[in-house]
Amino acid sequence: MTSPIFGPITTQRHDNVLVIISNNPPVNALGQAVRAGLAQGIEEALADDSIEAVVIRCDGRTFFAGADITEFGKPPVGPNLPETLDKMEASNKPVVAAIHGTALGGGCEVALACHYRVAVPSAKLGLPEVKLGLIPGAAGTQRLPRLVGAEAALPLVVGGNPISAKQALAIGLVDKIVGEDSLEADAIAFAREQIGKPVPRSSEGTANRDGVRNPAIFDEFRQKNGRKLHGFDAPQAAIAAVKAAGELPYAEGVKKERELFMGLMGGTQSAAMRHYFFAERAANKIDDILADTPLIDIRKVGIIGAGTMGGGIAMNFLSAGIPVTILEMQQEALDRGTATIAKNYDNTAKKGRMKPEQVQQAMGNLSTSLDYADLADCDLVIEAVFENMDVKKEVFAKLDSVVKQGAILASNTSYLNVDEIAQATTRPGYVLGLHFFSPANIMKLLEIVRGAETRDDVLLTSMKLAKKIGKIAVVSGVCPGFIGNRMLSPRQQQANAMIMEGANYWEIDDVLIDFGFPMGPFQMADLAGTDIGWHRDPTRIENVREALCAAGRFGQKAGKGYYDYDASRSRTPSEETKSIIADFAGREGAQQRAISKQEILERLLYPMVNEGALILDEGMAQRASDIDVVWINGYGWPLYTGGPMFWADTIGLKTIVEGLEKHGLPVSDYLRRKADAGERFTS
Ligand code: T1G
User: Fold this and answer.
1) Structural domain tally of the chain?
2) Rounded to the nearest whole angstrom, what is the distance from the C-alpha of residue 89 to the centroid of ligand 1?
3) Which of 285, 458, 608, 659 satisfies CB 3.0 to 4.6 Å to 602 for a cystine?
4) Structural domain that includes position 522
């Protein structure tokens, strides 16, 4: 018998066991209605003497996937989750969480407050709050260490990544793995077996003593993860909370958790990371295309060019189980390309990121060719050839004559005009840009460049395919550099201008590193190679880069570029580079002066925001948050500031405009209008 209790929560009675069921699509988020229903269901179950055990489960794709993030930042409405969970845990009737899908955040905390947890093999459990700039706020940081120990709890709470049901069983977070298709029945049977036994409560566990016996684990964890945690507030709070679980009585520990949680909730980092959570999902949506537009079936992919980009692109499809044919002009280039792919997979397998059989399957899906005719039956062909318009037009004309009608023809160009390339074919509707970022098998970002004539089904198919191959895709219009590289260019210009005016190049890099970037522009140049696009004539020196190349300063690969590098590739500013720059500055007659860190930061980042405003005004990006997604995933913009547009909102558009004017830099009409109106780019 099923009785609706409250909105998304119903109950089902199975003799002496009551099953409380949540049905709150899409992910059973613990919104107010769910919390109220859950509280009521638990209260009724505990008050009814004929009920001797309780099972909590969810309909749909997953067990509770956490608090409802859309409620954050709004006035809280009861009942609050911790109180509901405390009541439930205090019961002497066994309560069993029946887990499928992803029990995350508050969902995992509901499970922790249950006396037992059973899960299907495919289930995952985790506490991803740190990815939202938070820590668990319903006693997860206090119950988990008491159940599994501080050492096992740290990676879950501080890292935020979910673990499999099998891993959860191994650490004691799950009590039993049940049948994939018999979760409810097995959970009920398991619950019945516990009737009459004393109920185990995570909050009364003593596994957390490991953190007291060996307090070094916290500093060791901090040191081991130093780079990853750098700049983020939440992970440090998470470590403090787990440590407190060993030092304080439970109730005190919960208070400490609440204090840390509220401090983070009110901070800009969590606002930024919650913004990013929804921004990444919004980027999947193409506002002017019907979601039910029929898709093109992509069963076979052709890639032209087996170089670094072509090989990396191929791996994305091979790893997703999609057959690939790589085309090159010479057998030697093909052999080199396929050998690189095999080596990359070998490294991935060595790191345990892929099983040998998965690598075998991926490589088994790879074929090679020297003949365009072998691409005739491809559903998608991506060219990754030399970045030259004439070459690309020639390739597309050839593809147009060989590849079957209805196939998508994509260019991996990083800034060339996709419309011009499309005009080299008789099917411009099937042409678009798929701009992968190097290394293409690692970098998550994909810019999908929508041509003036790109068909809706071609665009939507590419967006869905991006998700299938594990990319985070953003739609861009056709403009030089699309979204990311277009905004990189004004930052580069200012960096080069400032070293002529007296700023040291390492100071510029350090300002961006302090802001949270993994490296600055001059380090990036050394990493990529200062000789990209160099004419190779050491006697022809017209700028700093050509001077560096003429001096053999090709970057990290040469042991010297802007910087000198030691064997471990750590950088030291170079006197030779300094004098090369001074020489050019002298020739330009630039006024030399010390430039403050604040001025460096403003002149590097404010012009990027202005360029982002132009991109929005021209309709080259669908929404400001898409620009944030590009820069966080493609260029290492620090996630805890939310991306360039959210960051601009945080400091205020008026401040940006005043800064640009102070430095004599252009202010777009769109930016000025938004600033004058007191508006934000992002919601
Ligand atoms: N709240 C609100 N909406 C959510 C949501 C959530 N927790 N999780 C997902 N959605 C929406 C999402 O915006 C999208 O909406 C749709 O569901 C499908 O999501 C108290 C304080 C569960 C692994 O961080 O990791 O609990 O775009 O596209 O790829 O201590 O969603 O369709 O309109 O991502 O299959 C902790 C976040 C919260 C989990 C599914 N929980 N979600 O991935 O689908 S804080 C999380 C996810 C908390 C407690 C603390 C993933 C997923 P739309 P999707 P998916």
Assistant:
1) 4
2) 25
3) 659
4) 503-588
